[in-house]
Write a structure and sequence with these properties.
By secondary structure, the protein is of the alpha/beta class. Helices cover 23% and strands 28% of the residues.
């Protein structure tokens, strides 16, 4: 008998689980949230994702994945989940307007949110010179100097992408070295890009602004505490992510950092009938291909659960 599955999240995990669920013969509704594509929307280089040589960006891949499951009948809903309730074996997934979807099973794939710097005026200056997405906002800084804050793969990828549009790109890194998981191929590209300058052992101190927004970034040398001002028009923050689990923390068991706990080797949460896939799953490597695999696994395990009803 056909069952109804609600998938929350439209990143690679959510899109993969939708495809597998609809092919499994179920009715599938997917809540896209405010950012269709999730982390895919901020990826400029899919070089470590096999078999997509002719796909130029994460946005393009997300559109292809959506079409695959939408053509088979997946219903995409541009809305977000506010809470989940369960009564007599039926789940209610509440939306922003307090309406709800009834379903037999839920797959959580809300992804992660960018970690903020925590400096004064950061919220007020977001969209006025501060950004967390180079793909989304890089266009606005063509032929202008910008700074990227962070020392991981995401920060380097952002810097390389921006270097093709911006006059100068500064990478502000708190430590004396790149993050341990940084790919050497990316480091080599940075070293060979003339308009990228790497500032090791420096930290953002405060934002320089006028009535229109950002006009620069004050940075601190962590070796001697001296302060220097960078004249930049844009600041791109790439210092990691936090799980987008605020609306389920009271309902689903999460770890101390807010990531959702699952049964070892499974995507099953502590609530029977609710599964979890992608970057919000505790102790998961944040890679597109892994998120896709977990999305497929969650759909298969969800189907096995539904067969018992």
């Amino acid at each position: 008998m056909k069952k109804h599955i609600v998938i929350i999240g439209s990143g690679p995990a959510g899109l993969s689980s939708a495809l597998y669920s609809i092919r499994g013969g179920h009715t599938v509704s997917l809540l896209t949230g405010n950012n269709f594509g999730g982390q895919l929307s901020s990826i400029t280089d899919l070089g470590n994702y096999p078999g997509v040589e002719n796909v130029s960006s994460g946005v393009e891949l997300a559109k292809i994945m959506r079409k695959q499951s939408e053509d088979l009948g997946t219903k995409f809903i541009t809305d977000s989940m506010t809470k989940i309730e369960q009564l007599d074996g039926v789940f209610k997934v509440f939306l922003a307007d307090d309406s709800f979807l009834k379903c037999d099973s839920v797959i959580l794939a809300m992804g992660v949110l960018p970690r903020k710097l925590g400096l004064a005026d950061e919220e007020n200056l977001t969209g006025r010179g501060i950004s967390y997405c180079s793909v989304c906002d890089g266009f606005f800084y063509q032929k202008k100097p910008v700074a990227v804050i962070g020392g991981g793969n995401s920060a380097i990828s952002d810097a390389l992408y921006l270097s093709r549009q911006c006059s100068q790109v500064y990478i502000v890194i708190r430590k004396s070295h790149w993050a341990k998981n940084v790919e050497q191929i990316l480091i080599d590209k940075v070293d060979n890009t003339k308009n990228i300058k790497v500032l090791f052992e420096t930290s953002p101190h405060n934002f320089l602004k006028d009535e229109n927004g950002i006009v620069g970034l004050s940075i601190k040398d962590n070796r001697n505490n001296s302060i220097e001002d960078l004249q930049v028009d844009g600041i791109f923050v790439a210092i990691g992510h936090i799980p987008n689990t605020e609306n389920v923390k009271k309902f689903i068991d999460c770890d101390e950092d807010g990531f959702i706990k699952t049964v070892i080797g499974s995507t099953q949460t502590d609530k029977n009938g609710i599964f979890c896939a992608g970057d919000i799953r505790s102790k998961t490597y944040a890679q597109v291909i892994i998120a896709c695999g977990l999305g497929a696994q969650s759909a298969i395990e969800c189907d096995e659960f539904l067969q018992t009803l």
